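Readers of this paper often ask what the protein records in our data store actually look like. Such a record has a labelled line for the sequence and another for the backbone structure tokens. The tokens are whole numbers drawn from a learned vocabulary of local backbone shapes. We quote a single record here, exactly as it is kept in our systems:
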Amino acid sequence: MTLAFAVSTLEGRARLEGAARAALAFIAPHADGLGEIFNGVGDDFGTYATDALLAQAAAPSLCGEYVFTALVDLRARLSRIPPCAAAPGAGGGTCPFDFDAQINWYGAQLSDLIAGFGIS
């Protein structure tokens, strides 16, 4: 995936910025949930990427390319998490919360946000 062709025009730049702002608006209230998932499986880089997106939301200037790349990375990290029975802390094959459903929900939300960038 590359954004090079999508941001070569003013319209492309505006779309990139709008999609990045929408993504950051989603991440802000959901960062704790994503963090719990990544912490639960010991993925420090997933936790770091989530925190970095929060920092981007507070930054004085927006880097849409960074936001896009981070979203793609987070979605890929979620897709590599094993089913709940294999997750750390799973007792007897049952998680204390619906771990798999959370992973699937966040993955779907991230996919929708990535689609907002208009890149396939």
Summary: The chain has four helices and no strands.
